[in-house]
Design a protein that fits this description.
The complex is a heterodimer of chains A (about 425) and B (about 525). Chain A is built from 14 helices and 13 strands. A 6-stranded mixed sheet of chain A has the order 10-9-8-11-12-13. In chain A, strand 11, helix 11 and strand 12 form a beta-alpha-beta unit. In chain A, helix 6 packs antiparallel against helix 7 and helix 10 packs parallel to helix 11. The radius of gyration of chain A is 39 Å and the shape is flat. Chain B is of the alpha/beta class. Among the domains of chain B are: about 150 residues, no CATH class; about 90 residues, no CATH class; about 70 residues, no CATH class. Chain B contains 21 helices and 9 strands. A 4-stranded mixed sheet of chain B has the order 6-7-8-9, covered by helices on one side. A 3-stranded mixed sheet of chain B has the order 1-3-2. In chain B, strands 4-5 form a two-stranded antiparallel sheet. In chain B, helix 4 crosses helix 13, helix 14 runs antiparallel to helix 16 and helix 17 runs antiparallel to helix 19. Chain B is globular. The N and C termini of chain B lie far apart (about 60 Å). Classes of the chains: A alpha/beta (about 425), B alpha/beta (about 525). Chains A and B meet through strand 1, helix 1, strand 3, strand 4 and strand 5 of A and helix 1, strand 1, helix 2, helix 3 and helix 7 of B. Strand 1 of chain A pairs parallel with strand 1 of chain B, so a sheet runs across the interface.
């Protein structure tokens, strides 16, 4: 008695729980690794898995064993030149030349235990600091949405998708096509037979001819009857394909103050802020371009590397960045074909009389051109004049959000409006 | 250059075969398998195996995907197992290796159960499926059923049910007492799971229904016993006097987990039950650890013999045979010690060579064989092999059957590494003077008792601080590894009080000691 069982369709993620237990146990190490990865990654490259490594000694499962030392006598295969009684120098590294499997030494290998976090897992660790609401988390981790769409007919499919009309039409066509010649000959034969029978004076030879014709007619009838009414060949199935939901293009501007007062931690917080906006845009738009503008007293457009890693010093004139922003929008991202989003991060310092100019620029020129403008002030000090001026902007333009943040957990409120809209649509 | 020769086999290879007419059940030459073809080849393999007299449990072949194979890997090959992070760790490293193409997955996993479950991986070609069926479903299966260690120590009928019981029980504990509590306990049990086996006592048969019923009883009874042992109420004086001379335990105990399950003072009943589960599973795998060479050798010998027989009968064709021989040759390759690929003695290579060699000694004995193996030279090879399979483990099998011819072919040599000497010494090689010595040493190398440090429960201080003392009897002056301290912490966690580990020298004198103090006498 024996059985052959196909288990392939049964659950394959039996180890998912064990895997999750592992991640749970090493959560703090993994979080560190994710934090390092976020620092090292480009904003646009945030959505992929990550290789995480943990020192082997941390994940070890200890057990009693022998260490090297004392007497080991081992048998090994493949002797080439040794004779009994030969003395050989101890090889470096402590191991005996012929230490077989039995010689489990505990030389600690310093290799790390390396494994891959999936994209979802990586994102979850990333979100954990940001304290995003669950709805938003699911939105951001979701993959591209598809919709089902009709796409003609197919010759294979599930019975529930059989398209009756098409199938029967096909069957009819096939019956006509396959039976065509037989039907034609049948008609001819019947005509001939009728002609013979209608003859006033029957020929004696006609009797044989009549019999033959009758036989032929019978044969043709049988053949026509044998043509199946419907054949598996005729079946047509409604075909549905998945089409990604149409999306449009957007441009995201990252504006950051790089004056001396922005230190590494602040830049890191700012980076998380930019990443979050990027992730949001990624859900909504098919194509996203990112423009990095940094400023101190003068603004310039730079690449990502320079944006985050080069340091400047000196004073701060925020309006220089806004001027540049306006110029870039006008030149390259004219409203109509691009949706513009702006994320600005700063520590709040600005030249006194410049802040008023900033508010005017924003209210009158920039805000009408952009979809959403977010501003974070990374500081724990009291609000300064830029903050005061900026707080007047939302009165005129509701699509402006600002927030003072100290830790990454404070970032989310800036985007609250954005995600609310997204959830509704 | 690799100068090792593969053992000659009496079964005719493809070259010297007479052309045979196609067999009525001949398999088509294709690499894709179908269910019909697997059934067909299985029927043929079964017929041949039965003709050779292989006695097996009924077979259950299961087709699985690579992902499922990885799952099976991580739960030590069992179809069900409880959850633990260490299984997740194994899964992650397997997955990583597989996805990057650094390693292939095993072609098969076979479970010592009744019926015997063998996994066939979807990705395998038809040839590989046939190889796996012959290897696992007839080779390993008959070994599980026949070998005395498996007959004594494992209960093929009950293991799957027991695993279900264990999984449910531990899941229930997790719900009641929290995942962390359970995880800590399992970590500690796993650390000494190799010391959770009875080596000389036969364990009681497992049965799911009885297990459930008895578990409750045991809980109540064991707890009452413990309470008696550790009772703090003053006893009457004369009783005290009698007890004072007694050692506890009266004899050293080799099964640490058993001792902890029965006598650890502070464990809750559910914790005792979990210690027992780890112990039972460890016991189940104990024979496998002792019969690696024999088990793989036996299975490899039979897939080779069965498929050659099918080839001779014309059931399988040349293309099939070439693919089979390629895999087979890879499996039984033994790299020499100086090769960069050397990773110890390949149990498949040694086992297959020995099984084949026994057949050769039976069928075509030389004068040397007659001198070394007077009992088996010229006997019926099937009976001799069957006897060898049933009554030995690796250690005794090698001591009994390793022939001078194989020692020569493998170029075995013995290296003595004594840390008192400055240099390594070659103590024996594959020559007349060395055969017996090499054979004896190789057998010793497979003696589990020598491979693992000998650590036993020595005493418990029942009158004072309840400290547990373990004794490590040194073997060949070999020290313990660095992890011993960690393991000892786990033992202390289970025991709940201080734990000492003493190492004794050849004359029983204590030469070194370590201890773990339990700081808080808290329950887990």
């Amino acid at each position: 008695m024996s059985h052959l069982i196909d288990r392939r369709l049964q659950g394959k993620n039996k180890s998912a729980v064990n895997r999750e237990r592992f991640l749970r146990r090493y959560k703090s190490q993994i979080k560190d690794a994710v934090g390092r990865a976020i620092k090292g990654r480009s904003i646009t490259d945030i959505e992929s898995g990550e290789k995480v490594s943990i020192p082997v000694k941390d994940v070890g499962e200890p057990s009693f064993g022998h260490a090297h030392g004392g007497v080991w006598e081992t048998i090994s295969p493949g002797n080439q030149e040794y004779q009994k009684g030969d003395q050989i120098a101890r090889p470096k590294g402590g191991g005996g030349a012929g230490r077989g499997k039995a010689g489990n030494s505990d030389q600690v290998t310093e290799d790390d235990f390396i494994f891959e976090l999936s994209r979802e897992e990586f994102m979850n660790y990333f979100f954990e600091d940001l304290e995003l609401p669950n709805l938003v988390k699911t939105q951001l981790t979701a993959t591209t949405e598809f919709k089902n769409q009709r796409a003609g007919y197919n010759i294979s499919g599930t019975p529930s998708n059989i398209h009756v009309l098409r199938s029967l039409r096909g069957a009819l066509g096939r019956r006509i096509a396959v039976g065509g010649s037989s039907r034609k000959r049948l008609a001819e034969a019947q005509e001939e037979l009728q002609a013979l029978l209608d003859k006033p004076v029957p020929d004696p030879e006609d009797a044989i001819l009549v019999a033959e014709l009758r036989k032929l007619i019978h044969h043709l009838h049988t053949r026509l009857a044998a043509i199946p009414y419907i054949d598996p060949f005729d079946l047509r199935y409604s075909n549905r394909i998945k089409v990604p939901k149409p999306m449009t293009q957007a441009v995201m501007f990252c504006i950051m103050d790089v004056s001396g007062s922005m230190d590494e931690t602040r830049k890191d917080t700012a980076k998380r802020f930019f990443i979050l906006l990027y992730l949001f845009l990624k859900r909504v738009y098919d194509k996203i371009e990112v423009v990095f503008i940094r400023h101190h007293t003068a603004a310039s457009e730079v690449d990502e590397e320079e944006f985050f890693h080069s340091r400047e010093s000196g004073g701060t004139v925020v309006s220089s960045a806004l001027h540049l922003l306006d110029k870039v929008i006008d030149e390259r991202y004219a409203a109509g074909s691009w949706n513009s989003y702006v994320a600005q991060a700063s520590d709040g310092d600005n030249w006194d009389n410049d802040s008023v100019l900033c508010r005017q620029l924003l209210t009158n020129t920039i805000m009408p051109k952009v979809q959403y403008y977010t501003y974070v002030e990374i500081t724990d000090g009291p609000p300064q004049n830029l903050w005061e001026q900026y707080s007047q902007v939302p009165d005129h333009h509701p699509h402006f959000a600002m927030q003072k943040i100290v830790t990454p957990a404070d970032i989310y409120p800036v985007f609250r409006e954005l995600f609310k809209k997204q959830a509704k649509s | 250059m690799n100068d090792m020769t593969h053992p000659a086999t009496p079964t005719p290879g493809p070259r010297d075969r007479e052309p045979v007419s196609r067999h009525p059940n001949a398999l088509p030459e294709q690499s894709e398998w179908t269910f019909e073809l697997i059934e067909q080849i299985h029927t043929e393999i079964r017929r041949v195996a039965e003709n050779f007299g292989l006695d097996t449990y009924p077979n259950q072949l299961e087709i699985i995907t690579a992902e499922q194979m990885m799952d099976a890997y991580t739960s030590v090959g069992m179809p069900v197992s409880y959850n633990h992070w260490s299984f997740g760790k194994h899964f992650l490293s397997t997955e990583k290796g597989y996805k990057r193409g650094q390693m292939g997955l095993a072609y098969e996993i076979v479970i010592n159960s009744d019926p015997c479950i063998a996994y066939l991986m979807e990705e395998n070609s038809l040839t590989m499926q046939a190889l796996v069926i012959a290897h696992a479903a007839y080779g390993h299966n008959s070994f599980f059923k026949g070998n005395y260690l498996f007959r004594t120590w494992t209960d093929a009928e009950a293991i799957v049910d027991y695993m279900v019981f264990a999984k449910n029980y531990i899941a229930e504990c997790e719900q009641r007492y929290g995942i962390d509590e359970v995880e800590l306990l399992l970590d500690s049990c796993h650390a000494i799971q190799n010391y959770g086996v009875d080596r000389y006592k036969r364990p009681a048969k497992l049965s799911l229904a009885q297990e459930r019923a008895r578990q409750k009883e045991r809980e109540a009874y064991v707890q009452s016993q413990i309470n008696e042992l550790w009772r703090t109420l003053p006893r009457r004086e004369e009783e005290e006097v009698n007890k004072s001379a007694k050692r506890f335990p009266p004899e050293p105990e080799e099964n640490l987990l058993y001792f902890i399950e029965k006598y650890a003072p502070l464990l809750e009943p559910w914790q005792r039950e979990m210690v027992r589960i780890v112990r039972k599973i460890s016991q189940y795998f104990y024979p496998q650890r002792q019969t690696q060479v024999m088990n793989e050798g036996w299975a490899t010998f039979w897939h080779y013999t069965i498929l050659n027989q099918l080839y001779d009968e014309g059931v399988i064709g040349d293309g099939f045979m070439m693919e089979f021989l390629k895999s087979h040759t890879n499996v039984v390759y033994q790299p020499p010690v100086h090769s960069p690929y050397y990773n110890g003695i390949n149990p498949y290579a040694l086992g297959f060579a020995m099984m084949t060699d026994i057949r050769r000694i039976c069928e075509h004995p030389t004068a040397e064989d007659r001198a070394w193996f007077p009992d088996i030279a010229g006997s019926d090879w099937r009976k001799t092999l069957d006897f060898a399979m049933r009554n030995f483990k690796d250690e005794s099998f090698i001591a009994q059957y390793l022939s001078p011819k194989l020692i020569r072919e493998f170029h075995f040599f013995a290296v003595l590494d004594d840390d008192h000497n400055e240099k390594l010494a070659i103590s024996a090689i594959h020559d007349d003077l060395g055969y017996r010595y090499v054979r004896q040493q190789l057998a010793e190398q497979y003696n589990l008792g020598n491979r693992e440090p000998n650590i036993q429960v020595w005493s418990v201080n029942t009158r004072d601080d309840r400290a547990l003392t373990l004794r490590h009897t040194q073997f060949q002056r070999r020290p313990l590894n660095q992890q011993a301290g960690e393991v000892l912490k786990h033992v202390a966690r289970l025991w709940g009080f201080d734990v000492h580990l003493e190492t004794t020298g050849p004359n029983g004198e204590v030469i070194s000691a370590m201890e773990v103090k339990r700081e808080k006498r808290s329950r887990f």
